[in-house]
Specification:
The protein is of the alpha/beta class and 326 residues long. It has eleven helices and eleven strands.
């Protein structure tokens, strides 16, 4: 495989970090465009361009790359500004999106042609929160399609594994590894899917090397797979003897004021149809080479990653958990 010049927008935190590692390991030349705030000193063998993408990207003037991966655009202005700065010199473009772009599907196993959610009521808004996140990603995808002729859109579900700065999967791994009675939020059958960042990175690099365009889901395991299955797979990997999952009804937890931050990855107030977004069909991606490791392997490796903290406020306080289980 010829050596490629690859630009990653981001690349020092999580998804981008694993992609950069995969590209360097494959012998490619990598340039990271980032603010220099996360993990300084990471990847000394790569080129680092220090810039804030919310400001003019003059560092990209007259630069040329074989491929560009954008892992950090949340509003369409950022997509358009990057395209303008590259001015046709970015090569094959990959935009990392999300399955949150979909309207609630009619059934599990939906594919990439499923209807998308509505954009925000104010398309100029740059407030990113649960009510605008999916719609803004829809607008980002549209801006990328307008800007780039050769485009790949990757729509992952929850990304997990070592270096996960969100702490969502990590919190469950560490909580179950402590053992005892673990509060498990119902319903156990609520669809959920994950993808290990290392699998996502290796596959995305393959897409770049083949210059393969299209839109693809990165979601695992195949439905039906529920939140109970996820916790059981984690427990099989890290739980000490005597650990038990104690299921608590959704209604009781909502009445107690719990949400998807205190109980990460939990469906919370989502309707049964809204939960089906966590039941995507990834056959198209698998046909292009995406391979998934077992969830249990991701759990073990996440537990071994002691350098990445779970953010403050993510997860249920042990005393609160004990009260709810009583």
């Amino acid at each position: 495989m010829p050596v490629m010049r690859i630009l990653t927008v981001g690349g020092t935190k999580f998804v981008g970090r694993h992609l950069v590692q995969a590209a360097l390991s494959a012998g490619h030349e990598v340039t990271l465009l980032h603010r220099g705030r996360s993990n300084p000193g990471l990847f000394p063998d790569a080129e680092h361009l220090i810039a804030d993408r919310d400001e003019p990207l003059k560092v990209l003037a007259e630069r040329h790359f074989d491929a560009t991966v954008d892992v950090s655009a949340y509003v369409p202005r950022q997509v358009r500004a990057l395209a303008e700065a590259l001015d046709g010199g970015g090569g094959h473009h990959v935009y990392i999106s999300t399955v949150s772009v979909y309207a609630p599907p009619d059934a599990p196993g939906y594919d990439e042609s499923s209807p998308l959610t509505d954009p925000p009521a104010d398309p100029r808004t740059e407030r990113v929160d649960p009510s605008t996140y999916g719609g803004l990603k829809v607008l980002c995808e549209q801006a990328a399609r307008e800007a780039y002729g050769n485009l790949t859109v990757v729509r992952p579900t929850y990304v997990v594994g070592p270096h996960d700065h969100t702490g969502r999967f990590t919190w469950w791994v560490r909580r179950i590894a402590r053992g005892g009675q673990v509060l498990a939020p119902g319903p156990a059958a609520a669809p959920v899917q994950v993808v290990d960042a290392r699998d996502l990175a290796a596959w995305t690099l393959g897409l770049l090397e083949e210059r393969l365009g299209g839109t693809f889901h990165a979601a695992h395991p195949a439905p039906p797979y529920g939140f109970g299955d996820l916790l059981e797979d984690i427990a099989a990997a890290v739980a000490p003897a005597g650990t038990t999952l104690r299921w608590v009804e959704q209604e009781r937890l909502l009445a107690a004021g719990l949400d998807g931050r205190t109980l990460p990855l939990w469906a919370g107030e989502e309707s049964p149809q809204e939960r089906l977004v966590g039941a995507a069909n990834s056959a198209a991606a698998q046909a292009t080479g995406l391979r998934f490791r077992p969830v249990s392997d991701s759990a073990r490796d996440t537990l071994d990653d002691t350098e990445t903290p779970v953010p403050e406020g993510v997860g249920l306080d042990p005393r609160r958990e004990s009260q709810l289980l009583q």
